[in-house]
Write a structure and sequence with these properties.
The chain is α/β, with parallel strands linked by helices and 211 residues long. Helix content is 36%, strand content 24%. The structure holds S-adenosylmethionine (SAM).
Length: 211
């Protein structure tokens, strides 16, 4: 396996993160995702579709497009757009021809995308060294009322960077409703031999409706 995951989880700041993914893009699917049996995109896709999710969908921190691949495999045939701040990750995603629109954007900042999405999904982007809860209001700004949102949040950062409090606050402000938090495994059994520190990582899939 390449050394991608360990470095990725200890990134400090948006610039470092963006640079890291620029150089990881070519080996992300065949190295990290295949060798670690990376399951998170499948869990997010299943949670979104199982809760009745529909399009148009925005895949946030879409990377090379693994979540769109899983959505298509599970039968979703609606429109999917991708947002990511790494041009090289988006270039890999574009090759798969699964996305209608590909947008280079930093989701920690307000996005210049219209409020037109019936679904917002994300896998692997809300984790150590990546994106914190400050991005949540920007995502809500692009969602239609009643939109379904399914975002993976790594257990390691759930309370430490305040996702629990941010989602509680959005619920209290009646901006989101029906919050559910199924817990899933991030990797498969093969990960144990490759990265014992992270093989057992778990994530919550924050599944909620936009009010
Ligand atoms: C672990 S990868 C996940 C990619 C894909 N969703 C998957 O599950 O394979 C995290 C992705 O988030 C993107 N990313 C990280 N911080 C971001 C930010 N602030 N704005 C937009 N994209 C970001 C990275 O470029 C990378 O493609």
């Amino acid at each position: 396996m390449d050394q991608g995951l360990k470095g990725a989880l200890s990134l400090a700041g948006q610039d470092a993160c963006q640079r890291y993914y620029q150089s990881w893009a070519d080996s992300y699917d065949s190295g990290f995702a295949r060798e670690m049996e990376y399951r998170l995109p499948a869990h997010v896709a299943a949670a979104f579709l199982g809760a009745g999710g529909s399009g148009p969908v925005l895949d946030v921190g879409a990377g090379t497009g693994l979540l769109a691949e899983r959505l298509r495999e599970m039968g979703f045939d609606g429109e999917i757009d991708a947002a990511d701040f790494s041009a090289k990750m988006l270039a890999r995603a574009a090759e798969k021809r699964l996305y209608a629109g590909l947008y280079r954007a930093d989701i920690t900042q307000p996005l210049a995308l219209p409020r037109r999405y019936g679904g917002i999904v994300s896998s692997g982007t809300f984790t150590s060294g990546h994106v914190g809860p400050e991005a949540l209001p920007h995502l809500l700004d692009m969602a239609l009322p009643g939109a379904l949102v399914a975002l993976s949040i790594n257990r390691r950062v759930w309370t430490s960077v305040g996702f629990d409090r941010a989602l509680e606050q959005l619920t209290a402000e009646a901006r989101i409703a029906d919050l559910r938090l199924p817990e899933v495994e991030v990797y498969g059994a093969a990960a144990t031999a490759l990265d014992a520190d992270h093989a057992g990582d778990r994530a919550l899939v924050a599944l909620f409706s936009v009010v």
